[in-house]
Write a structure and sequence with these properties.
Blueprint lengths: L16 H13 L5 H8 L9 H10 L15 H14 L4 H5 L1 E3 L2 E2 L3 E2 L2 E2 L2 E2 L3 E2 L6 H18 L5 E3 L4 H4 L1 H6 L18 H11 L6 H23 L1
Parallel strand pairs: 1-7
Antiparallel strand pairs: 2-3, 3-6, 4-5
Helix pairs in contact: 1-2, 2-3, 9-10
Protein name: Transposable element Tcb2 transposase
GO molecular function, one term: DNA binding
Organism: Stegodyphus mimosarum
Length: about 230
């Protein structure tokens, strides 16, 4: 025995097939519009008022589902060109040259660390806003310069955060070979993946002190191996 739906049963559709296609076309033209916005746009051309829920059903029938847009940096044509030029300039680097690159962007305002092939700096934890003065006195002088002195031929890399590009910081780094960094391109640095690696494994600490302790443990145990894999 089989069961089938009796013709004419259930709530009648509020839109025709043609109106459904019209709704889908509007959504494809404006992919970031919400169902409420699409409802307002197509309402004058529909035979009867429809709810935003009906709009969503028609979109689902057209294989369109809602998504939250990713928040990304806005790249102007100049930024895109500089990113491509930077990647091409380093595209033929050998493994030895990449191993000499010393990577050190900041991870927010409370955590800083630097990695190089098979070595790393201490993980520096601090509170408050990072300024150029703090960056020089708490990061560059006590950590970066000594580390670079232990790595002959190393190249220092950092992103374009304001404390990094300040004249005070640049003056401090005059004795170090620096790798220029394209604008709006923090994602090009392997250390960003290390911060993601730590964030995924830090768990759910109940206090700031516990968070700092866990970060230090993860930094000591896992960072060198993970960075070697990224490079």
């Amino acid at each position: 025995m089989s069961c089938t739906r009796r013709p004419g049963s259930g709530c009648p559709r509020q839109t025709s097939c043609q109106e459904g296609r019209h709704i889908v076309r509007n959504a494809r033209v404006q992919p970031t519009a919400s169902s409420v916005a699409i409802q307002a746009q197509v309402a004058p051309s529909l035979g009867a008022p429809v709810s935003s829920r009906t709009i969503r059903r028609r979109l689902a029938e057209g294989q369109l589902v809602s998504r939250h847009p990713l928040r990304v940096l806005s790249l102007m044509p100049t930024h895109r060109r500089l990113r491509v030029e930077w990647c091409r300039a380093q595209g033929n680097w050998t493994t030895v040259e990449w191993n000499q690159r010393h990577i050190a962007p900041t991870a927010g305002v409370m955590v800083w660390g630097a990695t190089a092939y098979n070595t790393r700096s201490p993980l520096v934890l601090f509170r408050g806003t990072m300024t150029a003065q703090r960056y020089v006195h708490e990061i560059l002088q006590p950590h970066v310069l000594p580390l670079m002195q232990r790595l002959p031929g190393a190249i220092f890399q950092q992103d374009n955060a304001r404390p990094h590009t300040a004249r005070l910081s640049q003056d401090c780094l005059r004795i170090v070979t620096n790798l220029p960094w394209p604008a709006r391109s923090p994602d090009l640095s392997p250390i960003k993946h290390i911060w993601d690696h730590l964030g995924r494994r830090v768990g759910h600490p109940t206090s700031l002190n516990e968070l700092e302790a866990r970060l230090q443990q993860l930094w000591e145990r896992n960072v060198s191996k993970h960075h070697t894999e990224l490079v």
